[in-house]
Structure formats: C-alpha cells, structure tokens
Inverse folding.
C-alpha cells in the first residue's frame, strides 16, 4: 500500500525560537515526508508520526489546527536515541466526509501494524479514535483501550457521533470480545452515576483523578496493558494546558502527564498513542502544544528503553509466586520480572489467541493484598470480564 496517497507532506515554517544549537534538535534526526521526499523505506523505521487535522464531528470545534502546532514544538526538542528510527509521515488528507477520514486512518494504521511500527497520532478531535477502533477490529484478540480524560465520553442516547460519545462504539454488548476499556483521571463532577454504573456492570473501570494522583507510579500497570492510549488534553489543569477544548482548573499536572506517557513508551503493549482536543486559538503562548510535544517526547524516550518481557515469552526472567486465597476459591498465580521488577497476575481463563491463560499487569501491592487474604480488585474484574467474553 502506498501511503503517499493518504498523507500530505509536512510543511512547517521555520520556528521563531530555537532551544538547541546546531543539529541537536529532534527534527535533524528523523525522516520526514516532504514535497521533495515522498514516503519510502518505512521498514527501516520503528515509529510513525501522523497528524489528523480534522474536527468535523467535534463537540467543540477548533482542534483541527493543532497537529502542526504540536509538530512544530516537538521538532525543537532534543533528539531521541539515534537507534530509534522515527518517520513523520505528514497529515492525513481530508476525505469527502469525516467517515472517509476514519477509514483512511484505519487503513494507515493497519499498514503500519503490518510493518510492526508504533504510531503517534496528533489530532484533531477525539472522535478520530473511531478510526483506531476500526483498525483494531480487523486484528485478532482482545484490545485494551486506555483513555486519559476528565470525562467519560459515552452516552445512553443514540445521537450523531461526536467527540463526547465516540466510546459508544466499543461499549456495545457485541464488542465485549473485542475491547477492554479503562479511563484514567475522571473528575467526579463531570461524570454521572449512570456512566459509572454502566462501567461497573461491564467489569470496566475509570480511575478518579484524586486516586490517580496519589501516586502516579500506581497507574503503570493500567498503562502497561493498553494497546491504544487516547489523551484528551483537557485532562491537564488549565494553568498547564490553557489550550484544551474543554479546560478545567483541576487536572493532572504537566509533569504527571509526561510521566504517564513515559510509562506508555516503556510498555511493549502500547502500539498507538494519540493526543486530541487541543484548540490553538485558546492556547496562550502555544503552552498546550508544547506540553503535548514534551509528552510525545517522553513517550519516545521511554520507547527507546523498552524491554520486551512477559511471563509467556520470557519465562527465563520470570519468578512465579502462588498464593492460596480461600476467597477466590483457588490459587492466584503472580509473576515477577527479574529484569524490571514488574508484576503480572494470571487469570484462569484461556486466551483463544495464545492458547494460554491471560496475563494481566499488576503491582506489588496486589500480591501483598492476596497474601493478606484479600481478593485483588483488578484480578476479580478481569476474571469476570474475560470469563464472560470467552464463554
């Protein structure tokens, strides 16, 4: 498939301010699709950057102009490890309708997946996630989605698709075998009891902002299991991200978002990271674009240190711990990496893709909880969710 037909070349004005001297900046150490240099030799690269300048189905318009704003700031940052080959493929061409854009994004992501590339998406409005969902539907297995958002973007009314209800697509009963879902950072006054109850009934979850901020490192297992992470820039407080489509005085700090995206880079499961809902017209001194760029930089920096390990494929680096828990009715098997000290729980449900039990990321605290005869909530939730899906 020739991606040149799907993507416009990158065309940026020279930045007014340079942070680094000489050729040490990010833009000097990546491949870029330009009018004079069409896309080629993709197989030599590990990471693709694509912009999607579309907000036709946005609940609040303005984010279509953000991809190049983020790209401009990213290009000015320092270079990443030279062994991590990065290709900026440009911006997705606008189709005749927003649905055309969703399907174009699907086709691009499937091509990049075929080439084993990790993708950073610069949005655009968050309903563009539909294009990602369409791509994941074409791939075998259960796909874990993580949104980082102050709101829960699904509703119980059948309405035209927009950026406040795009999650309806993956929360349908017929999608249980395709998608798992977690949201990180919701603010209680922006969600309804009905939304939280719907997640609970489906054995899905949303972590409240205050709980997530108690110790950001506790979010790592949630991030590590995710295949696609979608970030609404409104999840960051207004003082750090004034250019969000729906700003709020409360939210994650800018440095906390960077820590989260670095965890995402370190995870071997994360294949796609997207930044959405950034409105340049509201963005004082391009501060939000700069934060998105720095968060993308931390993702790439983490990716350059990614360790490929899990209980199934690297058993030589894994220690097994078996905890007899009467409350569960049987043993709970934990696995710990001797390389990174990361933990997994084994769910006694067979994964139809691998033929082995499912492995779910967890924390040392989950192991301690089981040792104290307490059933880890994450284990219980996945047991019911996966058990229902594979019946």
């Amino acid at each position: 498939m020739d991606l040149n037909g799907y993507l416009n070349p990158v065309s940026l004005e020279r930045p007014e301010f340079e942070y680094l001297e000489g050729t040490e900046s990010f833009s000097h150490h990546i491949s870029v699709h330009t009018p004079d240099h069409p896309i080629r030799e993709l197989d030599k690269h590990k990471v693709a950057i694509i912009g999607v300048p579309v907000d036709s189905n946005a609940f609040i318009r303005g984010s279509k102009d953000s991809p190049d704003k983020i790209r401009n700031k990213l290009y000015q940052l320092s270079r990443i490890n030279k062994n991590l080959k990065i290709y900026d493929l440009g911006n997705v061409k606008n189709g005749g309708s927003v649905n055309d854009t969703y399907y174009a994004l699907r086709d691009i992501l499937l091509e990049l997946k075929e080439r084993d590339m990790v993708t950073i998406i610069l949005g655009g409005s968050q309903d563009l996630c539909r294009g990602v969902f369409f791509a994941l539907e074409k791939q075998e297995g259960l796909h874990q989605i993580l949104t980082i958002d102050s709101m829960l973007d699904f509703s119980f009314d059948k309405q035209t698709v927009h950026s406040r209800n795009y999650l309806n697509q993956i929360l349908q009963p017929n999608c249980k075998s395709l998608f798992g879902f977690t949201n990180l950072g919701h603010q209680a006054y922006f969600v309804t009891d009905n939304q939280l109850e719907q997640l609970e009934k489906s054995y899905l979850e949303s972590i409240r902002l205050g709980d997530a901020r108690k110790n950001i490192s506790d979010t790592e297992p949630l991030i590590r299991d995710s295949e696609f992470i979608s970030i609404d820039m409104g999840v960051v407080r207004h003082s750090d991200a004034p250019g969000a489509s729906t700003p709020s005085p409360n939210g994650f700090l800018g440095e906390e978002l960077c820590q989260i995206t670095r965890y995402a880079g370190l995870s071997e499961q994360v294949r796609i990271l997207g930044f959405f809902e950034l409105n340049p017209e509201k963005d004082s001194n391009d501060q939000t674009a700069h934060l998105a760029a720095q968060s993308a930089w931390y993702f790439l920096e983490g990716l350059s240190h990614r360790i490929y390990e899990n209980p199934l494929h690297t058993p030589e680096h894994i220690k097994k711990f078996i905890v007899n828990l009467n409350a569960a009715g049987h043993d709970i098997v934990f696995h710990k990496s001797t390389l990174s000290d990361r933990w997994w729980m084994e769910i006694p449900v067979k994964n139809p893709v691998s033929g082995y039990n499912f492995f779910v990321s967890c924390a040392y605290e989950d192991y301690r909880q089981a040792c104290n005869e307490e059933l880890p909530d994450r284990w219980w939730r996945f047991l019911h969710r996966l058990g229902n899906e594979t019946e």
Q: What stands out?
A: Residues 315-390 form one domain.
